Structure formats: structure tokens, C-alpha cells
Amino acid sequence: MLLLSTFVVALAGLGGAKPLSDKRWNDVSVKHRWVEIPRGWEFHSTPPEDHLLEMRIGLKQNRLDELVSALYEVSDPTHDKYGQHLSKEEVDALVAPHPDSVEAVESWLQYHGINPADAEFRSAGGEWIVIRVPVAQVERMLDTKYGVYYHAASGSSVVRTMEYSLPTELLSHIDVITPTTYFSTLRSMRATSFLQPQTAPLEDAASFATDISPLAVPASCGTTVTASCVRALYNTTNYVPAATATNKLGIAGYLQEYANDADLQTFFKQFLPNAVGTTFTHVQVNGGLNDQSDPGVEANLDIRNQFAEAISFPTPNIYYSTGGSPPFQADSFTPSNTNEPYLDWLNFILNSSTIPQTFSTSYGDDEQTVPEDYAVSGGFWYVMTNLFMQLGARGSSIMFSSGDEGVGGGNCQANDGTKKVIFQPAFPASCPFVTTVGGTTGVNPTVAVSFSGGGFSRYFAQPSYQTASVTPFLNALGTKFAGLYNATGRAYPDVSAAAEGFQIVINGRVSGVAGTSCSSPTFAGVVSLLNDFRISEGKAPLGFLNPLFYSTAKSGFNDIVSGSNPGCGQTGFTAGTGWDSVTGLGTPDFLRLQALLP
Ligand SMILES: *[C@@H]1O[C@H](CO)[C@@H](O)[C@H](O)[C@H]1NC(C)=O
Ligand SMILES: *[C@@H]1O[C@H](CO)[C@@H](O)[C@H](O)[C@H]1NC(C)=O
Ligand SMILES: *[C@@H]1O[C@H](CO)[C@@H](O)[C@H](O)[C@H]1NC(C)=O
């Protein structure tokens, strides 16, 4: 407030040159305000006034309803438009803002001395404007004060604010501005995987390189999950991909993650000798690096590329490395890129006219790290969800891991000031337009793994495609956990796959890893083969999968009927017959799914 008044006084001092525009832009309303600093973060210092922020303005998309309808039409196997995905130009037209929104935002920028033509980036549809502005000026534009906030657990520092305002006139034209009140960085997010103690002395286990029959999967695959195990478990062992000239699988990597080619070759040699020599394509997004000498701190990425390759081989895999600058230094006056890598990656992909038919990515965060009031009506997750929607409309299938904390990690207290304990749904797992993959363990029986993320969104309403499957689960639950979860929210996970004992190669050594980060690329590998089959038959790829999975293809999954996902000091949901919020519809049987495809 103090800043705004100073600014108004300064302008008044100019002799009232622009009284009309003063009124137009100085009548402001709060867009979002935190009651308390988001969990895990603390105020550190005031950023230098000339610290440059990359201000990203997301304009309201004018024909969003049409995009939603189009997405559902092309994804519904009973609709006559099934598979008729939209081109880049068609999607760009549907996400474009109304000309009035463009006019209003550009006038506001001009009022602040910013020439819209100098924008660093404008998306093809026009819904994104990215400009580089010193923090002091952003503070005037958004009537706020920025701080440097520190996340001790990950060592991340970001420049963010506890609240921001917009001219009242712009509230209906702007969905979101970043960086503002969204605190997470990919470093502070939980990478959904963790190393396990070695489960078997693999170096001398030549047998791991041989095929396993899907008719008799050995019990050892329940604890020591090799490439041959997942191929057998999900019944892809005998499928030979036939559309490898067209079909592609995309894998998203973020800051400081580099897919390691040498480890992939060692993995093939050890576990899948036929694939030795197969490499993946590296694509650098916004200055992403491909540093082969530093293969990333997370095992995450190795799982993604090794297990996605293990199933989809020889389908080309594309590894996207999204850049970003080093963590913010409080005493540095150099421009620092405070981008959201997710947004960079999605904007990069959506700017290409041809995109991979299948994607796997594995990070997640608590839904409540973003402002509830605008997650649905415009805001960071809302905007992200629109981007996933665009990928689906273009014909891509997107897989996300469901998270590794069951119904919620930590103390599960709400961050609205009440400190009430509630289950903590994860995002993007809770986005209605991605396919969320939970975790299982064991063979005969296969059961839910106890950390499998699952629950009900507090932001996104339950999509109609899942109502018939989710209702029996809710009915059986009755009043249990009432008040801890939102029964009308989007329910997840949708499906599941193995999540423990994965044998991957990191820095030349075989290591055991666990996490739903194992489940998501494994499932994506199966989807990639289903896409291969569709394409080889001259048909469109599957695109957004959920409407198909919850209807025609439902019987292509092996139902997982025991196990639970405790968290928040509660026993968690229980897996049972039919859909459940621990393992979703179950694990995939490729051959059955293939037979059920439209
Ligand atoms: C694989 O498919 C065959 C033929 O449908 C079936 O008999 C077998 O049980 C399946 N195996 C697994 C692991 O799903
Ligand atoms: C989008 O694609 C066009 C055409 O390929 C290219 O000229 C432009 O630089 C791209 N923009 C971004 C931000 O990647
Ligand atoms: C439940 O979800 C709906 C959206 O489906 C939302 O409007 C509502 O506020 C949520 N309720 C609670 C208590 O979280």
C-alpha cells in the first residue's frame, strides 16, 4: 500500500497529466493474498531493487469452453469425432485472448512505460506475454513488496510476494501473473522416487537379461523389478513396435537433470541386450544443458528414461531438458531467471507443430501450495491444467506419478490459518486432464504400495468420465474420513503400476529405486505401445486417455484389491474391487487393452 500511495503522489506531482488513465489503473483489487508463508519457506531478505524478474502474464483465454468441449469430443470413444485431434493452429485459435483483453493489458503496460513490442516472448495464441522488469517496478505495477524466500530443505531461494493486486479492470482479463505468490520450485518439490537398499546382487545375475513369459511371471519380479519383469507383468514382451517412424515418447527433465547415455547403455547391456546401441534424442529447452559428466542428482530421471525405453524400445524416446539459471543469490545484481520450468517446457512443446504422442513426467507438489481461490477461476494450476488440456486436444497422452506420501505427508495442516488437518491432494496428479499413475508392489498377489498417492482434489471438480467408477467407492466409504477429503473433487490415481525394487543403472552401478516415479514411465511405456498399435493401423493416437480408460477399456486393467495408503496420521484409503483411490482402475494388461481399443 505504501508503495502505491508513493507512486500516486509522484504522478500527481506531474500536474495531473493523465487523470483518466490514473483512475483506470490506480483502482486496484487484491488478486491473491497468503495468510501465512507456504509450508517449508521462510522470509530471508529484501531483493535488490534492480533485480530483474521475468514477469509472465497469462491472459484469459476467450474460447476456453470450446477447447474443453473439443477435447472431450476427440477423447470420447463413442463420439464420432473420436481421434480427430486438433492442429496447433486450431488450438492456438481457441486459447487466444479476446482483443479487449489484449488492448487492456497492453494499455496498462504502456502506462508503466513498457512497450508491449519489447516483450521477450508472446505465445502463438497470444495468451502469454513475458517481459523482463526490475523488481521495484513490478512492485509498483502489482501494489506489493517482494521478498527473497528460502526453502531450507532444498536450499532453494526465490523472489516472491505474499500478495499481489491488479487494476480492478484487469481482473477479468488476466488469469495469472508469475512470479508472484506461487512459491514452489522444482527443487523444492518432492521428486517422487527414493533409493532402496540393494535387493539382489545383480552384477552376477545374467538371467536378468532374458525374456520372462507373461504366462508365468516369477515371484522375484515382485521384489526385484527388472526390465524383463515389467515387460512380462504388463504383457508387452511379445509385441513388436511397427510405427517407430512416427510414434515417439517424450520424457520431461528439469533443472540440473541430464539424461545419461552411458548409464542407458549399461542398463541395456545388463537387462535388455537387444536394445544396446539405442539412444534417446536430447532436446534442450530454454538453455537446458546436456552435461554428460554430471548425470543429475536425482535417480528420477534414470528411471524415467530406462524403464520407458525398456517397454517402448525401439520407439524413439525424446528427452527434454528444461533450463533455468542457478539459484537466486541475495547479493547478486545479475538478472536471474525465476521462471517456472513447467511453463517453459509446456510452452516449448505446444509451440511445435508435431509433438510426441506420449509423455511421462514425475514431479508433484501439494495442491495447497497454490492459492485455492484462483486455482479454479484462473491461476497457476488452472493455467497449467489448460496447457495439459491443449496437449490432449493435440493428441498426446500425459502421464503423471500420483506422489509418494499416500493421502498426505507431514502434519497435513491447512495453510489458510486454521491449521485444520486435511488430506493433501497432489498436483498435477489431481489435474483432470492427465492420467495419474499410482503404485503397487509384489506379484501374486500384487497389492497397493503403502506410499501410493491418492485422494480427491479440493480445486478441480470430479469429471463426469469417472463418476460411474468413483461413486461405488465413495458409497462404500460412507462417513469414514468425512471432512478430511473432498468427495466432489477429481479423484486419483486413474491407474497404477509397480513402484518398488526397480533395478536401474546410476553412475555405472545397478541400484534399487522405489516411488511412483517408477510407475509413471512404466505405464507411459505401455501407452506408447498402444499408440504404436493405433498408428500402425492407420488410426490416430489415443490422446487424452481417461474417457477411454473409464469406459470401453476398463476391463483391460488388472484390478488391485488390497493394500492402503496411510498418511496425515490416518490409515488412508483401502484398495478394493473396482476403482479405488490407492491404485485406480488397476495395472495394465497390454494385450487386453490392445483388443479393447476403438
Ligand atoms: C498376458 O496375456 C495372456 C493372453 O491374454 C494372458 O493369458 C496372461 O495372463 C497375461 N499375463 C499377464 C501378466 O497379464
Ligand atoms: C515457436 O516456433 C516458431 C516456428 O518454429 C519459432 O520461430 C519461434 O521462435 C518459437 N518460439 C518459441 C518461444 O519457442
Ligand atoms: C470441493 O471441490 C469443489 C470442486 O469440485 C470445490 O468447489 C469445493 O470448494 C471443495 N470443497 C472443499 C471443502 O474443499
Automatic annotation (TrEMBL):
PANTHER family assigned: PROTEASE S8 TRIPEPTIDYL PEPTIDASE I CLN2, TRIPEPTIDYL-PEPTIDASE 1
SUPFAM superfamilies registered for this protein in UniProt: Protease propeptides/inhibitors, Subtilisin-like
Residues passing through the membrane, by range: none
Location of this chain's protein in the cell: Secreted, Extracellular space
Leader peptide range in chain numbering: 1-17
Protein name (record): tripeptidyl-peptidase II
Function: Secreted tripeptidyl-peptidase which degrades proteins at acidic pHs and is involved in virulence.
A Gene Ontology biological process term: proteolysis
Alphabetically ordered keywords of this record: Calcium, Glycoprotein, Hydrolase, Metal-binding, Protease, Secreted, Serine protease, Signal, Virulence, Zymogen
Keyword Lipoprotein set for record: no
Binding sites annotated in the UniProt record for Ca(2+): D559, I560, G578, D580
Peptidase S53 domain location: 224-598
Catalytically driven reaction(s): Release of an N-terminal tripeptide from a polypeptide
Cofactor entry: Ca(2+)
Broad class of the protein's primary localization: secreted
Organism: Mycena sanguinolenta
MF annotations from Gene Ontology: metal ion binding; serine-type endopeptidase activity; tripeptidyl-peptidase activity
Gene Ontology CC terms: extracellular region
Enzyme Commission code(s) on record: 3.4.14.10
Domain of life: Eukaryota
The record's free-text note on cofactor binding: Binds 1 Ca(2+) ion per subunit.
